[in-house]
Amino acid sequence: MKSWLILVIIGVVFALGGLVALANPFAASIAATTIVGFVFLFGGVVGLWMAFSDKEDRHRVWHGVVAIAAIIAGVFLVADPLSGMISLTLMLGLLFFVLGVARIIVALSMRGSPYLWVMILSGALSILIGVLVFIDFETAAGTLLGLLLGVELLVEAAAFITMGFAARRN
After folding, report:
1. Burial classification of residue 35, based on how many CB atoms lie within 10 Å of its CB (0-12 exposed, 13-18 middle, 19 or more buried)
2. Are 106 and 120 in contact (CB under 8 A)?
3. Do you know which Pfam families this protein is assigned to (predicted)?
4. Most exposed among 40, 88, 136, 162, judged by the fewest C-beta atoms under 10 Å?
5. Where are the domains of the chain?
6. Whole-angstrom Cα distance, residue 162 to residue 60?
7. Is the dihedral of CA 91, 94, 96, 99 positive or negative?
8. Rounded Cα gap, residues 97 and 81, in angstroms
9. CA separation for the pair 120, 102 (Å, rounded)
10. Handedness of CA 37, 39, 42, 48 (dihedral sign)
11. Coil vs helix vs strand at 59
């Protein structure tokens, strides 16, 4: 099978996954939380192994502490994805809000730049998303992660399909 076709097929699979996530954002949120939990577990185990195996590392105790924290977070997310979904949504709401404020602060330092208003608009939209998460936290907790996952899968799908057709021309 040609590589361009493989890229297009991967893109189509991602698109289908994105549509499924958007059709059922609650299930996709639970799935995303579980995946994040396993990523934390994997990263924590690898980090702990590295902390114990690299005798030369001066910061290995701290690396071990961070690895143990990642393992604990991973166990928490995998064992109780519903509570983990709420925690992750809380962190995302705060992240959107803080990044929006930071983006506006950076924008204000760009006076005279043609991109000033784009940065201010981008920051304001991030703040709005953060505020919306907290205005209706119950709904956001059950859907936000799934919606973000669905949108990300659709964006990835577009990228893979585009790369596939670009590779076909070459």
Report:
1. middle
2. no
3. DUF308
4. 136
5. 3-169
6. 43
7. negative
8. 24
9. 10
10. negative
11. coil
Q: Please give the full DSSP string across 92-150, using - where no structure is assigned.
A: HHHHHHHHHHHHHHHHHTTTT-TTHHHHHHHHHHHHHHHHHHHHTHHHHHHHHHHHHHH
* φ, ψ (nearest 5 deg) of residue 95: -65, -45
Tens of pLDDT, residues 5-57: 999 999 999 999 999 999 999 999 999 999 999 999 999 999 999 988 888 87
Residue listed under structure tokens 């330092």: 109
The secondary structure of residue 164, as a DSSP letter, is H
Cα separation of 85 and 90, whole Å? 9
Res. 149 pLDDT band, cuts 50 70 90: very high
Per-residue pLDDT of 113-148, as tens digits, reads 888 899 999 999 999 999 999 999 989 999 999 999
Place of tokens 């924008």: 107
Q: Tell me if 36 sits within 8 A of 76, measured CB to CB.
A: no
Residues listed for the chain: 170
